[in-house]
Specification:
The chain is about 80% helix and about 0% strand. With about 260 residues, it is mainly alpha-helical. The protein has one domain (about 30-260). The longest helix is centred in the first third of the chain and has 28 residues, at about 70-100.
Length: about 260
């Protein structure tokens, strides 16, 4: 009960900020649950996926309700790539856990997360010039990259989403956050289906979902509301602050991992 309540608190806060920034809350949920250390890497990845998927449903629905316009074709290609990339990432994570120790897999996740964070921070901090790409193949490729990292790292969305959408297609940050969350909805939905079909979810403590899902819904509503009232400049600040927090958390987890190797 105590651990589940702590998970719920983490998810409400993480999903609120994750919805505003377009990262999805997993980028905070995953390392913070790792820090708590109450469950395995696979279980934490599953809980983060459920939380982020739930939040993406709520937030994307609220954004569309408030009149945000999306290109269906573009979203379809990005989401299709994200679904494929998500399945590949899930398969690679499962294979990695079967081949190596949890310590080694967690170390790889921490390193890759920090590298994607640095890319995202530098992109938004220095306003790198957009490539202005167009075409379904670029959108599909972008989705593949986003889905793979989101699934393999177990963070649901991640810092790379918004930054890559802005860099490749020249989207303003607030529009990029909506596309990011819609993409997260598709990729994490596909990941959950794959987990359930394989029966992997039966090895986890499903009682925790009674706390995780309501917390994710609350976080989604709070994040959607904040996204409506904050300016693009403030959304950028929230995005960058989240990146710094995630770097600190992953750095701490990396030090703890080395100390207990």
């Amino acid at each position: 009960m105590g651990v589940s309540l702590l998970y719920a608190l983490v998810i409400v806060v993480a999903n609120s900020f994750g919805a505003v920034s377009g990262m999805g809350g997993g980028v905070l949920i995953k390392p913070m649950l790792d820090t708590i250390g109450a469950d395995s890497v696979a279980a934490i990845s599953f809980y983060a996926t459920v939380a982020v998927f739930t939040m993406s449903v709520v937030t994307t629905g609220k954004q569309l309700q408030h009149g945000v316009k999306l290109s269906f074709n573009m979203l379809l290609w990005i989401a299709s790539g994200a679904v494929i990339g998500g399945v590949i990432g899930k398969a690679l994570l499962s294979w990695s856990l079967s081949m190596w120790s949890e310590h080694m897999v967690l170390a790889a996740q921490i390193i890759l997360t920090i590298l994607t964070i640095l890319f995202a921070f530098l992109n938004t901090r220095f306003n790198w010039r957009s490539f202005g790409l167009n075409g379904w193949y670029w959108q599909l490729g972008c989705g593949l990259v986003l889905g793979f990292f989101a699934s393999f790292l177990g963070i649901g969305g991640g810092p790379i989403n918004v930054a890559l959408l802005m860099l490749l297609f020249g989207m303003p940050i607030k529009l990029a956050t909506v596309y990011s969350l819609a993409t997260i909805f598709c990729s994490q939905g596909a990941k959950l289906i794959a987990i359930i079909i394989a029966g992997d979810n039966l090895q986890f403590d499903l009682q925790r979902l009674w706390f995780i899902i309501p917390a994710a819904i609350v976080g989604g509503f709070v994040g959607a509301k904040l996204s409506q009232v904050l300016s693009s400049e403030k959304v950028t600040i929230v995005f960058q602050l989240m990146l710094l927090v995630v770097i600190l958390i992953n750095g701490y987890n990396g030090v703890q991992l080395l100390m207990h190797w």
